[in-house]
Specification:
InterPro entries: Cyt_P450, Cyt_P450_CS, Cyt_P450_E_grp-I, Cyt_P450_sf, Cytochrome_P450_Monoox. By secondary structure, this protein is an alpha+beta fold. The chain is built from 16 helices and twelve strands.
Length: 456
């Protein structure tokens, strides 16, 4: 960090009078951030209504914010609309409280627990393929986004609650979660408004949160009234005890963490997988190379946890898809004190957007940045420079706790479906992305799955 105070003005587009660039951010935030980052030098000032927002895309600046000087950057007011739903869970909390919660929850994501999930993941996928079979046999398209969300919901529900939530309640939870997720997306770009100012959809958003609260608290109360040991995340949250203080989690804390894992987990992996299948449908040579690896490693058997490290090209395909289409294309932070980023002085109290989407597509850091090339993640090419510019799950101590689980689910779903079917985009379909906290095709992704022509 420089010992002198830089005087270089942080560049950025002016936008409209009074409202600045807010119309661009609300209409197409990812496209706008990509364009603004390309015209800047890794740090861009955005006028957003009455306040200044700074877009950060340079890998060195991202490293400073998320790793080397992370204490200066908190989950601030840009998270308020999200915090309304997620409370003080891992995704939104700060400081010592966050560290405590992370420490308590880390065992739930150890390798042994993820290994125990594999059998259930395989069953969910096998049941899904059976459900799709009539549609596949008729040669009709399947909306792979919707179907992958349903598969992921089944996996996440089992991880959170085991077999203790009946199907009717599961359907109700999914419906409420979709409403809350939609409300969170609508609130992102109203962060600068006082809470007392009415905004469209605010009442429906609060009602959905309240209804989902009732469902979660009811499940917690039932478990507390019947303290049988359960091998799921809720059972673990109810039983864990802080070794330093002896405290257990309150119902409110458990609610916040369940909310966070459910809302952040169910759609992010599904969105990333959807783009992976889209890219494979557009790049048959990559799909063929992927099938060769799957045939060699798996034969006719479902993937096991021990198989996953051997599926190196499968992982490269997923990594490259997550580079082009990170499930969470933007992260939000607020600076506490003034900081120096390269030649620029970033004021304290600033609102910050970090954009993996923009960094991952910047030709200053990636060769042929818009090209789908899984081989760029081969060990001989994925060097320190490239690794420095890749952060689909974040960086540093606040890197997504669910990354190992997400990648395990992704590898198994890709391996199972691609090994059995060739995928092609339904005729006449035009894919338009949209930002909805995650990044996904606006109208889903209708794919036609055809049984492999080279294997019976």
């Amino acid at each position: 960090m420089s010992t002198t105070t830089p005087t270089i003005r942080i560049p950025g587009p002016a936008g409209f009078p009074l409202i600045g660039v807010l119309p661009y951010l609300s209409r197409d935030p990812c496209g706008f951030c990509l364009k603004a980052a390309a015209e800047g030098d890794g740090l861009v000032r955005l006028n957003a209504g009455p306040i200044k927002v700074y877009l950060v895309s340079h890998p060195d600046y991202v490293q400073q914010i998320l790793v080397t000087n992370a204490a200066n950057y908190i989950k601030g007011s840009m998270m308020d609309g999200i915090r309304l739903a997620l409370g003080n869970g891992l995704f939104t909390s700060n400081g010592d409280f966050w560290k405590r919660q992370r420490r308590l929850m880390q065992p739930a994501f150890h390798a042994r627990r993820i290994q125990d999930m594999v059998e259930h993941i395989n069953k969910v996928v096998a049941d899904g393929l059976k459900r799709w079979t009539p549609t596949i046999e008729r040669g009709e398209p399947i909306d792979i986004l919707t179907e992958t969300i349903h598969l992921n919901i089944e996996i996440i529900m089992n991880t959170l609650f085991g077999a203790t939530v009946e199907s009717e309640r599961s359907t109700r939870l999914l419906d409420l979660t979709n409403k809350v997720f939609h409300g969170m997306t609508e609130r992102v770009w109203t962060f600068f408004l006082p809470r007392w100012i009415p905004t469209p959809g605010a009442t429906a958003y609060q009602q959905a949160i309240t209804s989902l609260d009732e469902e979660i608290y009811s499940i917690i109360a039932t478990r507390r009234a019947n303290p049988v040991e359960h091998e799921d995340l809720l059972g673990m949250l109810l039983s864990i005890q802080d070794e330093e203080t002896g405290e257990r989690m309150s119902d409110g804390q458990i609610r916040d963490e369940i909310f966070t894992l459910f809302l952040a987990g169910y759609e992010s992996t599904a969105s990333g997988l959807t783009w992976t299948w889209y890219l494979l449908s557009q790049h048959p040579k990559v799909a063929a190379k992927l099938r060769e690896e799957l045939d060699q490693v798996l034969g006719n058997c479902p993937p096991t946890y021990e198989d996953l490290p051997k599926l190196t090209y499968t992982r490269q395909v997923i990594d490259e898809a997550f580079r082009l289409y990170p499930a969470f294309p933007m992260f939000f932070r607020s600076s506490v004190d003034t900081d120096i980023l390269g030649p620029y002085q970033l004021p304290g109290g600033s609102q910050i957007i970090l954009s993996p989407y923009a960094t991952h597509r910047d030709p200053r850091y990636w060769d042929n940045s818009e090209t789908f090339d899984p081989d760029r993640f081969a060990p001989e090419r994925f060097d320190a420079r490239v690794r420095h510019a890749y952060y689909p799950f974040g960086k540093g101590q606040r890197m997504c706790i669910g990354e190992p689980m997400s990648l395990t689910i992704a590898q198994i779903l890709i391996a199972t479906i691609v090994r059995a079917y060739e995928v092609e985009l339904a005729p006449g379909v035009v894919i338009t992305p949209r930002y909805a906290m995650t990044y996904q095709p606006r109208h889903g992704l209708p794919l036609i799955l055809r049984p492999r022509s080279d294997k019976h």
